[in-house]
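Thread: quick sanity check before group meeting

JM: Hey all, I'm pulling together slides for Thursday and realized we never actually wrote out the predicted structure for the chain we discussed last week. Dropping the sequence here so it's in one place. If anyone has concerns about the input, flag it before I start.
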Amino acid sequence: MDLVAACRAFVSVSERGSFTVGAAAAGMSQPVASRRVAALEQRLGEQLFERTSRRAVLTPFGREMLPAARRLVLAAEVLEQDAGSARRRPWRLAVPDICSPYDLARLVAEAKEHGIVLDLRVVGTPARRSELVRSEQVRAALLAVPPDEATWSVPLGLAGARDPGVRRLYVETLRVGRTDRASSGRGRRIWIQPEDDVPHIRDPLTRLRDAVGLRPSQLVVAPDLMTAAAEALSSDDVLLCSPAQAAGLALHWRPVGEIAPVRGYALDAAAAGDPQRIRERLGEAVARCLGAGPDPVPYRVSGARV
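JM (edit): ok, ran it. Output follows.
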């Protein structure tokens, strides 16, 4: 038996003195109201109404039960109202600045279809997003994590303004003196954007730099993506980025020859968050924003798609 529905029928009939009128006021048919009140009487073990041909009159037991039934119905209505307000409350989510405005707009639109109102905060560094979650300034954030802890993974490679003409770009080819593109003797640089300035990406690249004999100055952490992209566009330097980012910047992307760096992302929620709901309903849209979708951006080598 639905106790709330039964009490709602009981209260409505008692207030109007009629099963027909009370049922209509409660948004149900008269037979349904009668069955619900009968079930409630059976549950409570006493008759609630003296039924006559014209009116439904409360019994002494019914009069005693009416206040409690009203409180239950009111509590249920408050609960339903609170649930509706919670569904409509914006779900504040911190996302990295690698996401394009178009993909973020699609994420917000898809969230609406699932009854979720997203309030996105574009935050440029993983550390800052983590801080926003800890301080509960956002309900959740997409945090940078090692690949083995990730829900979404994004392959990284090196991208430059010119087509390198190879399928993979080996870091060792950037050594000063072994490339025709060295500038002022400083060598070609690899630019790391703030999003990738995390140990599981930066440290393997640093070890690789030292192992193949690059200068320390050839691996640079940029203050922002714009600076790093501008250097790659205006020189022979390369940018560590995803295929999707390279396509958006009109750069030629290649996998790294020696290692396979990967961005990993996981959804971390504050105490008031509900990450499972976002992962289940918006997982594919989040993957698309991060460049981790099922259809990776293709790149070309000598006219051949690879």
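AS: nice. The CA atoms of residues 94 and 141 lie 4 Å apart. The chain is about 45% helix and 20% strand.
JM: adding both to the slides.
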